[in-house]
Design a protein that fits this description.
- The complex is a heterodimer.
- Chain A is α/β, with parallel strands linked by helices.
- Chain A folds into 3 domains: about 170 residues, D-Maltodextrin-Binding Protein, domain 2 (3-Layer(aba) Sandwich); about 90 residues, D-Maltodextrin-Binding Protein, domain 2 (3-Layer(aba) Sandwich); about 210 residues, MetI-like fold.
- Chain A is built from 19 helices and 12 strands.
- In chain A, the strands form 3 sheets. A 5-stranded mixed beta sheet of chain A has the order 4-1-5-12-6.
- In chain A, a hairpin with a 2-residue loop joins β2 and β3.
- In chain A, α12 crosses α15 and α12 runs parallel beside α19.
- Chain B has a single domain, classed as P-loop containing nucleotide triphosphate hydrolases (Rossmann fold).
- In chain B, about 35% of the residues lie in helices and about 25% in strands.
- In chain B, β9 and β10 form a beta hairpin.
- Chain B is globular, with a radius of gyration of 18 Å.
- The chains are: A alpha/beta, B alpha/beta.
- The interface between A and B is medium-sized, with 21 and 27 residues.
Chain lengths: ~525, ~260
């Protein structure tokens, strides 16, 4: 065990220097969230390896004007601005609204697109025609968005917030919602193609999308603005927006371009065409098969993060438990405090703290290290409690017999007490790994694309939460299966070795240490 | 008793309390090399605590214990055990083997590994040597064929003999037994007692806390009767059981059916 701990510590320290995330010359690193979906940025349904969307086209055109090579960095939409501050990328572009709150923390380029909010209702609904009509109604919108703020100012609206637009529109269709309020591009792409939904009322509010740059990087901001201006003047920007069927009067006014349309909305037509076909079973299966490379990579990330964090949790948990049970008073108290603090705070906050908080004191970890560390430190607290129960259930006579043979306390622990405790706790620890496997989905908040994140990406791309969900669930089951078997096997094996009852079907009653 | 050689164990004014209850109220005794001593007395009389103090599993409150030149000594319970005291305790344990009522074999190791562990870990013996020695000891306690069995598969008598072999592997100067046959079925008691008799024949110094009065009487060089934390009477077996001098001894023995005539 000691060797394992040493190796692990070494591993953690080796990971530190590699975490320096600095801007590379010749590259424009840009942050966005592929789960944001159409038309902003999403995986091309015809080729999942490709990222498409009007924002992607804008970034690519922009980078070319700036003489840089664009490099995409995935991050959750909620964390795009923290990620910018943390130097994960140079700029962020993903429907980021130019609001006073945002401008407090980052600088924005000139707006590259201006849009509004759009109300959607079921086709058979004639009661709602304006924002005021939403009073006393159930209205769905995106969590923490401008539209949520607008609905709140109306007052007396029963607001339901969603993580993504697909579920909101399907809830509108199936009657859980009476109306939806979304940014017009989202409404156009997700509500527009649905026969059951119509858009009503005037344009609401004014939303300006800008490119976010870290405060103080004035040179970069100037270059971005210059490039954007060139894109506007050459008509490239307008052409991109028209291809995606997004050109509108607000943007025309903002960009001072009142000419007639020049480009067909080919990308919108293509999006709608990809949605419409009634898929045969064969098509469906082929589609799910085409997910496999994406899901395979994501599953690997899930597995790697889980294994790394479990190794840490098992080693650190044992140390914590030993200090708690056998250590001198101050260390025992420290160990207890660690367990109580870690168990008493949400793992999500811990992950945020490690990834976005620690850079404030100069510790920058790459996403993988931060994820493995965060989950590992968290699970260590739980493993420590399991070990503690294990250590306490080794009879006192074992320690006495070892001491009576002339062993020191440490020798007795090493050769007699700990090996028995470890055998005793193997089944519950293995069980914990299975729940860690699922908790590892939390690492998507720190830019890792794990299985759950990949699920969101694919589901928004294909508008298919049901089938994709089944495929992803099946993969989680497959990943967990070996460990379920391992848990059963260790349980039976340990029961045999320690002379406990229940070699066969009966569960060894003395082994369910999670009850402690 | 008269042919006493040098005192191997010397205990002076040994005191020990648990919470406010005095369990050992000043025990003094000398035990010579090669003696087989049985300690008897009513339950709660302090005989087990006395034994456990002898190898430092209980830390004495005050008094002095010397075994083969190693001394642990403490003036009062307020005196914090010093580093030197703890080191001496550790030295003492290497000289003294102990066998428990509940065997306390290590369940995750085979019988052979149980016997080999301490020589390898504590004395740094080479595993091959330790194994050969362990097999020899297992032969001596009649467990030749059981080396690779796990403790759970043994009968009580076999387990206790394995525990004795495990203690012997450290080549102790003294063997202590804390009610070694109390957890055994009656028909298995004999095989364990026989091992102790054999060891006596080889000159091993042994102190046995026991309820086996027949064994105490017949096999011991002398018997110690303890009551209420004190040694009340020391006598050879026949004398103790036929003509006890002290009233408390008589009182205790009277309650044991078939011991006193």
């Amino acid at each position: 065990m000691r060797r394992l701990v040493t190796a692990l510590t070494l591993l953690l320290f080796l990971a530190l220097p590699s975490s320096a995330l600095t801007a590379s010359p010749g590259i424009l690193a840009w942050g966005g969230d592929t789960e944001g979906g159409a038309p902003y940025m999403f995986q091309d349904p015809r080729d999942l390896e490709r990222l498409i969307g009007y924002e992607v086209e804008i970034v690519e055109a922009l980078a070319e004007k700036m003489g840089l090579k664009p490099r995409f960095v995935q991050n959750g939409w909620d964390n795009l601005i923290p990620g910018l501050e943390r130097h994960l990328y140079d700029v962020s572009i993903d429907g980021l609204e130019i609001t006073p709150e945002h401008q407090d923390v980052v600088d924005f380029s000139m707006p590259y697109y201006v849009t509004h909010l759009q109300i959607g209702v079921r086709r058979d609904n004639f009661d709602i025609g304006s924002l005021e009509d939403c009073r006393g109604r159930i209205v769905g919108t995106l969590k923490q968005s401008y539209s949520q703020y607008v609905l709140e100012t109306v007052g007396d609206v029963d607001i339901r917030t969603y993580e993504d637009e697909v579920n909101a529109y399907s809830d509108l269709v199936n009657g859980r919602l009476e109306a939806t309020l979304f940014d017009a591009p989202i409404a156009l792409y997700y509500g527009g193609p649905m026969r059951e939904i119509k858009f009503v009322g005037p344009e609401i509010g004014r939303i300006e999308y800008g490119i976010a740059v870290r405060k103080g990087e004035e040179e970069l901001l100037r270059t971005v603005n210059r490039a954007l201006t060139e894109l506007r003047d050459s008509g490239e920007l307008r052409s991109i927006l028209e291809r995606w069927n997004l050109w509108n009067s607000l943007t025309a006014r903002a960009l001072q371009d009142y000419g007639p349309a020049r480009t067909e909305p080919v990308m919108y037509t293509r999006w709608v065409a990809d949605l419409q076909p009634e898929l045969t079973w064969q098509d469906r299966i082929n589609r799910y098969l085409s997910f496999l490379p994406t899901l395979g990579r994501a599953a690997l990330t899930t597995m790697k993060v889980s294994l790394a964090s479990m190794t840490l949790a098992i080693a650190l948990g044992l140390i914590l438990a030993l200090l708690r049970v056998f250590g001198p008073k101050p260390l025992s108290t420290l160990s207890m405090l660690y367990v109580e603090i870690i168990r008493g705070t949400p793992v999500l906050i811990q992950l945020f703290f490690i990834f976005y908080g620690l850079p404030n004191v100069g510790i920058r970890l790459d996403p993988f290290t931060a994820g493995a560390l965060g989950l590992g430190l968290n699970y260590a607290a739980y493993e420590a409690e399991i070990y503690r129960a294990g250590l306490l259930s080794v009879p006192k006579g074992q320690m006495e017999a070892a001491l009576g043979l002339g062993m020191t306390r440490n020798q007795a622990l090493h050769h007699v007490v700990v090996p028995q405790a470890v055998r005793l706790v193997l089944p519950p620890v293995t069980n914990d790994f299975i729940s860690l496997l699922k908790d590892s989905s939390l690492v998507s908040v720190i830019t890792l694309v794990d299985l759950t994140k990949a699920y969101g990406q694919l589901a928004t791309t294909y508008y298919d939460y049901f089938g994709t969900g089944l495929v992803v669930a099946a993969i989680y089951l497959l990943l967990g299966l070996p460990f379920v078997r391992l848990a059963r096997w260790t349980e039976a094996k340990m029961a045999l070795a320690l002379g406990l009852p229940g070699k066969g079907k009966k569960r060894p009653s003395g082994l369910d240490l999670r009850l402690f | 008793m008269e042919e006493r050689s040098r005192a191997l164990i010397t205990v002076r004014d040994l005191r020990k309390s648990f919470d406010d209850e005095e369990v050992l109220a000043g025990v003094s005794i000398e035990i010579s090399e090669g003696d087989l001593v049985s300690v008897i007395g009513p339950s709660g009389c302090g005989k087990s605590t006395f034994l456990r103090c002898l190898n430092g599993l209980e830390i004495l409150d005050s008094g002095t214990i010397t075994i083969d030149g190693v001394t642990i000594s403490r003036g009062s319970p307020e005196e914090k055990p010093s580093r030197a005291f703890m080191e001496a305790t550790h030295e003492l344990r290497k000289e003294v083997g102990i066998v428990f009522q509940g065997f306390n074999l290590f369940p995750h190791k085979t019988v052979l590994e149980n016997v080999m562990l301490a020589p390898v870990v504590v004395q740094g013996a080479r595993p091959e040597r330790a194994e050969a020695e362990a097999l020899h000891l297992l032969g001596k306690v009649g467990l030749e064929g059981y080396a690779h069995r796990y403790p759970v598969t043994l009968s009580g008598g076999q387990a206790q003999r394995a525990a004795i072999a495990r203690a012997l592997a450290m080549s102790p100067k003294v063997m202590l037994y804390d009610e070694p046959t109390s957890a055994l079925d009656p028909e298995l008691v004999g095989e364990v007692l026989q091992v102790m008799k054999d060891l006596d024949g080889e000159g091993m110094t042994q102190v046995i806390v026991t309820h086996e009065m027949r064994f105490a009487r017949e096999a011991s060089d002398y018997v110690v009767f303890m009551d209420r934390g004190e040694i009340v009477e020391v006598a050879d077996g026949d004398e103790m059981f036929t003509a006890p001098r002290n009233e408390r001894t008589r009182d205790f023995l009277r309650h044991l059916v078939g011991v006193l005539p």
